[in-house]
Amino acid sequence: MDRRIAVIALAVAAAAIALLLWPRARVAPDAPATGGAATVAATDAADAAAAGAPAGDPDRAETSTAPQQDVRVDATPASAGADAATFAIVGTVVGEDGAPFANAIVIARTRSLAASELRTGRFGATKPGSTATDGAGRFRIDHVPAGTVHVYAFPHEMRRQLWTEPWAETEFEGRAGSEVQWQARIDPHPQIVGVARYKNGAPIEGAIVTARIRGEQPVHVVTDKQGRFLFVRLPPEPHDVELPAIFVPDGARPVAARGVWPDHGLLELVASFDEPQQQVPGSVIGSVLDTGNRLLGSFSVTLHDGSNANTRARITERSFRFEDVPPGRWRAIVYSGREPVCASDWIQVRPGEVTDLGAIATEPGGSLLLRVERPKEHADAPVDAYVIRAGVDRGLDLHFGSRSELTVDNLTPGEFRVSCWGEGIAHADSAATVAAGRTSEATLRLRAAVRREVVVEFADERAPLHIRIADDRGAVYFDTGPFWSGPLSRKVPLPLGSFTLSARGESGAEQSVAFAMTSLDDGQPPVRLVVR
């Protein structure tokens, strides 16, 4: 499909899941801020002090620090019963100017927030251990389990927001029956405030923007409807700010600014290309004919273009219809439950037209007998596998355990790719052809491997488009595409043999380095590649 259409689809998806608010009078959205102050006093005169540390991007070490956190405890015993093992947290949230901050979300957790929670943040006042501040910035959380507690403040309710980070945080020990006070202060500085526009002045909406100190992992935000973006609580160092290559058409200059210092006014990122012209969508209709008796109960249909899927089909009995389909190359895939059972030929959807697929007929299923031959060093090692039909967007996860054979039944006839891996075993791929009513066979000969560190750096600090490790026979052991960014440091399981590490950067620079695995000893020196 046309690259610009793919960019539009990705931008719409990013915008739908990224709720980005523009700064209000005192605060800045979509990034963390420093914590406030509190004090601890207990009746037995034992001091309990804890320092709060701002939470940065999960992939990047945060260099700024929050002010010392003091927590004040009223150790009045609670009444006997269920609350004897809990305590309460009360306090206020204020902005950088000291004014109360209303509708902030405060949550208390017995463990720190995981990176996965922050990446797809969903934090609201109705969840257990959470509340919202009132008009005076005040809050109270009751029934908090006694012990070590992590407390976070967010500027607003988060609903599946990308790269969420707390704006203030602290950690302390709460005693049963006590009341702990926390005064949280939000200060977004140092910050980079910016706007991204096309050449014709139109805002670039729903685009991921990265900010990176050279040699470190990037932090991310998403532009709003006006193309605005904001990074807060950054280290006071120059940053490279840019849009990933997926948002830039082939041959166009990167949308980037180098060496941007925080707190130096509005940053304008202006593209060298105009806003992509949205084409009139088309429609796709068709029906399903179950000649192979593959449909068990209800079925679903998905349109797939090789990387994106459209699941918004209107199904009536055995007929289906898709509306608002972006022009381009698509195919329909029919599922019985979660299993793909048949697929149409590739079709070209044209602007404003209805494309009729006709009847898509199922075929009787076939079977695939998979065998794995483990290396002697790992004769009993558990092995996992993944089987997927070529051109289909969903495959099957398989678990051999300690077995050497596994049969997969009721597969749709066609070409399949099989991947296997295990601890101490190199990644292995194979191909197999499944025929209707027959059992096909495939054997994967696995090789012993050891994890070796691979480091790739880009001298111009632009995002990589492609990083790959292959041996001298063409077998691929590592492959990553344009959605990955930053310098790479990864431990890849590799067997004995000769290999080539290659990388291509956003600027078009491409380099490679050859290396060998002459032993399976741990602690081998890293393989390094700098793309200039």
Description:
With 532 residues, the chain is mainly beta. The protein has 5 domains: 72-185, Carboxypeptidase-like, regulatory domain (Immunoglobulin-like, Sandwich), CATH 2.60.40; 190-270, Sandwich (Immunoglobulin-like), CATH 2.60.40.10; 282-361, Sandwich (Immunoglobulin-like); 366-445, Carboxypeptidase-like, regulatory domain (Immunoglobulin-like); 451-531, Macroglobulin (MG2) domain (Immunoglobulin-like). The chain contains 2 helices and 40 strands. The strands form 11 sheets. Strands 19, 20, 23, 24 and 25 form a 5-stranded antiparallel beta sheet that branches. Strands 1-10-2-6 form a 4-stranded mixed beta sheet, with no helix packed on it. Strands 5-3-7-9 form a 4-stranded antiparallel beta sheet, with no helix packed on it. The longest helix has 15 residues, at 3-17. The radius of gyration is 28 Å and the shape is globular. The model is unreliable at 1-82 (pLDDT under 50).
Features:
Immunoglobulin-like; 5-stranded antiparallel beta sheet; disordered N terminus; mainly beta; 4-stranded mixed beta sheet; 40 strands
Can you give me a brief rundown of this structure?
The protein has 532 residues and is mainly β.
What is the topological layout?
Elements: H1 3-17, E1 72-74, E2 86-94, E3 105-109, H2 115-119, E4 120-123, E5 130-132, E6 138-145, E7 147-154, E8 158-162, E9 168-174, E10 179-185, E11 192-197, E12 208-212, E13 219-222, E14 228-231, E15 239-242, E16 256-260, E17 266-270, E18 282-289, E19 300-304, E20 309-310, E21 313-316, E22 319-325, E23 328-336, E24 339-343, E25 347-349, E26 354-361, E27 366-373, E28 383-389, E29 396-401, E30 405-411, E31 414-422, E32 425-434, E33 439-445, E34 450-458, E35 464-471, E36 476-480, E37 488-494, E38 497-505, E39 510-517, E40 527-531
Parallel strand pairs: 2-10, 11-17, 18-26, 27-33, 34-40
Antiparallel strand pairs: 1-10, 2-6, 3-5, 3-7, 4-8, 7-9, 11-14, 12-13, 12-15, 15-16, 18-22, 19-20, 19-23, 21-22, 23-24, 23-25, 27-30, 28-29, 28-31, 31-32, 34-37, 35-36, 35-38, 38-39
